[in-house]
Write a structure and sequence with these properties.
Elements lengths: L2 E8 L4 H12 L3 E8 L6 H13 L3 E6 L35 H16 L1 E5 L15 H14 L1 H4 L5 E3 L7 H10 L24 H12 L13
Parallel strand pairs: 1-2, 1-4, 2-3, 4-5
């Protein structure tokens, strides 16, 4: 039978997924955090995900191995330079887009939800302050949810999975404000696409710039460590 109090949350260790985890907790769910070691160019975010899962408190934190480096095609999984100081208003999809990543991650989450009898999956996609990734849009989420209802035993038996995207219409400022209201320590999180060997954020990739600008708009310093602050 479905467990109405259990939810799966995709957790990368970044600002958005951490806020999403805290929101799922505030919504009253018992949580399973799902993190992927997918061949990304650094493991800083995996350490952050472990810290966040421990701090917020989850029933279980699973780290699943997928080798997307075998496919390449992204600055996060291949020897392609991470773009720096890019025009964030452009509609061009950047090289940091990982082909089909959210589809792959959500497919794993969907399978795990069936195994654990969970009917709720949270993902921290955002269609406002983001880098133009096609798998962060509301239309994509709606299509995946419809597919999930057709493609699973749970869906066919009348217990389809619900996809929760609490950040999808929020600005980065609104996301941070929501997390701070929930008591989050954003110093636990890491968002940089290209940290240095010490784990310090570059400050110039899309993720760093969006994050720092949002903290600045709130009159706060981003608590993540940056190379230019050392």
């Amino acid at each position: 039978m479905p467990n109405p109090k259990l939810a799966l949350v995709l957790l990368s260790g970044g600002l958005d997924s951490t806020t999403t985890l805290a929101i799922a907790r505030a919504d009253g769910f018992d949580l399973i955090a799902l993190t992927f070691r997918y061949g990304q160019r650094h493991h800083i975010e995996l350490d952050a995900a472990a810290r966040v899962a421990s701090a917020i408190g989850v029933r279980e934190h699973l780290v699943v191995d997928i080798d997307l480096r075998a496919l390449g095609g992204s600055a996060l999984t291949a020897d392609i330079p991470v773009p720096k100081d890019r025009d964030l208003q452009t509609r061009e999809i950047p090289s940091t887009y990982v082909p089909a990543r959210n589809t792959i991650f959500l497919a794993y989450a969907l399978a795990l939800a069936e195994v654990r009898d969970a009917r709720d999956i949270y993902i921290g996609v955002n269609a406002t302050d983001y880098s133009g990734y096609p798998d962060c849009r509301p239309d994509y989420i709606a299509a995946f949810e419809k597919m999930a209802a057709l493609a699973t035993r749970a869906g066919v038996e009348g217990h389809p999975v619900r996809l929760h995207t609490p950040l999808i219409r929020l600005t980065k400022v609104e996301i941070i404000r929501r997390g701070l209201a929930l008591g989050l320590d954003y110093g636990l999180t890491r968002s940089c696409y290209d940290p240095d060997p010490r784990g310090l954020a570059c400050g110039h990739c899309d993720s760093c710039r969006l994050r720092r600008a949002a903290f600045a708009q709130l009159g706060l310093n981003d608590p993540a460590p940056y190379a230019d602050r050392c």
